[in-house]
Structure formats: structure tokens, C-alpha cells
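[SOLVED] Predicted holo structure with zinc ion

Edit: marking solved, answer below. Original request kept for reference. I posted the sequence and ligand SMILES and asked for the 3D complex as C-alpha cells.
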Amino acid sequence: MFRSIHPRCWERKLVSARNSKIHGIGVFANQSIAAGQILARYDGKILAAEEVQCELAAGNRYLLELPDGRVVDGSAGKELGRLFNYSCDPSARLEYREGVPLIINSRAIGRGEEITIDYGFDPADVTRFPCTCRKPNCVGYIVAWPYHAMMRRLYGAPAVSITPGTAGNADREK
Ligand SMILES: [Zn+2]
């Protein structure tokens, strides 16, 4: 589907998928990874406009809008991009390079650590998507970080001030 970035960027096998304590299958570091590496690509099937409406109505949570307005259905993808779990203290982000959606880690990651991203979900219908990330700054729901303070006010999650991507110690298990 995407041709402009060399596959070598995401085929270095820095990460692999396995069972997650957060939810289902997650993506974990195979080795310690310096900040700013391309970990995976978000691939899938480009949908026609009527297919997008259909998939939204069906509750497909793997839809991703590309910078050019096309929509990718990640549930049809074969690569790891779609398997990253959300957390309220994400260690990686989705970034477009030459129009290609890539998962890039925002900070250094230890070997064996689960890597999480911010899905950028809108707060509408947010209570349908409870968060189980167990991070100290968890807001209780899967929602984009600009809404975190609002969610804490509305739903009473513990108020802490951690800027996404800077809370390097927050991944320690309790
Ligand atoms: Zn959370």
C-alpha cells in the first residue's frame, strides 16, 4: 500500500507481539531501544467512503485517517502497527512520514517493556472505552491526552501532572 519509505525502517524487528496485561495482544521491545526509532508501520486496507461509514457503524476501532483524507482499516493489516495498546502514559506516537503512518517511540524503552501509544480518541462516547493501562496517571478511559484533565474533572480519576512522553519511570509494575 505504501511505497515511499523503505521497508527496512520497520523490518528491523525491534519489537514483537505477545500477550499483554493491559489488553489482549500488545507490542513489546525485543531489546533496549533509543528514543525516536521507527518501530512499526500502521498498514491495512484503504476504504471507500461508503465502507468507512459501514465500518464506523460496526464499531471498527482500527480506522486511521491519512493526511490525504483516505481512511485505512488497520484490522485488515498484517504488520504490528495495529497491535499497540493505548495507555494514559504512552511511550510511542503515531507519526506520518511522507504520508506513511509509523509508530515511533518518544522516549528510550527498556528490553521487554510494553510499548503504548495515544489513540487520539475523541471524548464523545468515551465511557464505552475504559482504560486498563494501570499507569499512575491513568484517567480511566481511552481518550486523547489533551482531554485528560477534563476527564479527571468529570470522572474523578486521580489528578497528577505528568506530561506524555516524559514519565520514564511510570512503567514500573506495582
Ligand atoms: Zn489508562
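OP edit: The chain has one domain: 7-43+78-173. Thanks to everyone who chimed in.
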